[in-house]
């Protein structure tokens, strides 16, 4: 095999690029597989890299360019679009979008583990780590979702779009169940039997007459209920946020 003269450079013509040794070769570092002039060059390059990496800030230390009009030093997060009114919540541990027009209108509920509008602070039905669950419709994890979220009357969270796709008016269904319950009289020995129920919609516990067809919530009038063994004194899914 021969080499063209145009592509050949005598070895003595190479410049010495290493500041530590006069040599015409490089080394391959086994830790990162990078090519360096010597082990000292490798150490200095890595030290410079890590120094820059850990000094994350809004403006570049080299050229001064702003890397994002919004910058969070805790999340190391940048975004030029500040119209979303981002803010960092220490309780959530992440940056969130301010859907309530201004950060002063937001409070963090430690029970639910998420931020809500202050308008619902006194009426919030808390659910343990409400945002640390998947959406019940699409199963996306809610805490770091980018989609709009709404809170159901029971206190659980769900994507707003998923509500629109999956929820419908149940009033006609409840009317038919009213008719079926009225048209199915219970035997005499069960007519005075009472049971405790929990409403899956509003979270209310009620004591109602036992019926084999269904049990109606006394508060929201839905039949989306289930029997419980205890009354509201010792059983309640509703905790008021303070």
Automatic annotation (TrEMBL):
Q: GO terms for CC? A: nucleus
Domain (CTCHY-type) spans: 67-134
Q: Name one GO molecular function term.
A: zinc ion binding
Keyword annotations from UniProtKB, A to Z: Metal-binding, Zinc, Zinc-finger
Q: What is one Gene Ontology biological process annotated in the Swiss-Prot or TrEMBL record? A: protein ubiquitination
Domain CHY-type residues, every copy: 11-94
- Judging by the UniProt lineage, the source's domain of life is Eukaryota
**SUPFAM superfamilies linked to this entry:** CHY zinc finger-like (SSF161219), RING/U-box (SSF57850), Zinc hairpin stack (SSF161245)
Family matches, as Pfam families: zinc_ribbon_6
Which protein is depicted? RING finger and CHY zinc finger domain-containing protein 1-like
